[in-house]
Design a protein that fits this description.
Number of domains: 1
Shape: elongated
Number of helices: 8
Distance between the termini: 18 Å
Radius of gyration: 20 Å
C-alpha cells in the first residue's frame, strides 16, 4: 500500500485505537485511512506538477527571450493541459466518502485506486525530464520542436490516463 498509509495509520490517537475494538469500526477506519492516504498522494502529485508548471512558465519566458515565438502556442496549450490535470487530480473523488454510502467501495478497490494514483507520479518524472531537455534545446534551437512536442504529449497523456480513474473506482479495471 505504501508509506503514506503507514504514516496515516501510525498517527491514530488512543481513542481511535479504543474505538477500533468496536465491531465494524475497525474496517470503517481502515477505509478512512486508505482514503486519507490516497488524498495525500494526490496532493503530492498535484504539488509536484505545479512545480513543473512553474518551470513551464519560466521556459516560455526563455522562448520569448530567445526569439522562438513559433513555439509559444504549443507551450501555452501544454500549460493549459497541465493545469487541467492538476485541477482534476486535486478535485478527484476519494473513492469512499462514508459509512452509509449507497455504493460501497471495498479495501481492495481502494488499494487499486491508490496504486492508480501512485502511477501518476511517473508523469512528474517524465515531465521534469522533458522540461530539462527543452531547456537545453532553447539556446541553440536544435531539437526544440521535438522537445516542445514531447512536453505537450506528456501533458495530454497525463489527462488521458486520468480519464481511466473512474473505471478504477467502479471496479472495472
Amino acid at each position: 500500500m505504501g508509506d503514506l498509509y503507514e504514516r496515516v495509520s501510525e498517527t491514530r490517537t488512543g481513542l481511535e485505537k479504543l474505538l477500533g475494538k468496536i465491531p465494524g469500526y475497525k474496517g470503517y477506519k481502515e477505509k478512512e485511512m486508505r482514503r486519507e492516504s490516497d488524498k495525500l498522494l494526490r496532493e503530492t502529485v498535484a504539488t509536484q506538477m505545479e512545480i513543473q508548471r512553474r518551470r513551464m512558465d519560466d521556459l516560455q519566458k526563455q522562448l520569448i527571450a530567445a526569439g522562438r515565438f513559433e513555439y509559444l502556442d504549443e507551450m501555452g496549450n501544454a500549460t493549459t493541459k497541465l493545469q487541467t490535470f492538476i485541477d482534476r487530480v486535486r478535485k478527484a473523488a476519494y473513492g469512499y466518502a462514508g459509512l452509509f454510502d449507497a455504493v460501497r467501495v471495498r479495501e481492495e478497490e481502494l488499494d487499486r485506486l491508490y496504486d492508480f494514483d501512485n502511477q501518476l507520479l511517473g508523469f512528474v518524472e517524465q515531465l521534469s525530464a522533458a522540461l530539462s531537455n527543452l531547456e537545453t534545446s532553447i539556446p541553440g534551437g536544435e531539437g526544440l520542436a521535438e522537445a516542445v512536442r514531447r512536453v505537450m504529449d506528456i501533458c495530454a497523456e497525463a489527462n488521458r490516463t486520468f480519464d481511466g480513474r473512474e473505471q478504477v473506482i467502479l471496479g472495472a479495471v
